[in-house]
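look at this stuff:

>
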Amino acid sequence: MKKIFTILSLIVLTSLAMYNTSNAQNYKNAIGGRFGSANGVTFKTSLGGNKMLDIIANFRSHHDVNYFRLTGLYEIYNPIAGAPGLNWYYGIGGTLGSVKYKHYDSNDLYVSLDGVLGLDYKFVEAPLNLSLDWKPAIELAPDTQFDGSGLGLSIRFTF
């Protein structure tokens, strides 16, 4: 767990070091909650131009399994004409985490390759951002399978 938070801190510091003032999203950084098939914390930062890095730490309980996952997504934003503050985006990334099997009291490594497709809205007069996205994943460990249940709503404070 300590290694995961160290990795998260390094990713955040790296992304802040690469920061460029030009962006298409109308905000530079945002932090808040992600709610859906997995609930957690999300931090989004601009990489310059129309690109952003989204880091998500989430928890999920499914049947007889608990997950803790740390996801990093490289996202490309495109404005929607005639809708100020509204963008659609897509991207790719990966997840590293742990899975706990409740009945067997055992743990395993969780690894996946993730995609993302969504809508992002930044309120013009308020430091608030909403994102609705679908984050499908190809799980590589502990089992190889497709997980299409990654629908989520993120509510973030922008700064």
Residues 12-23 have pLDDT under 50 and may be disordered.
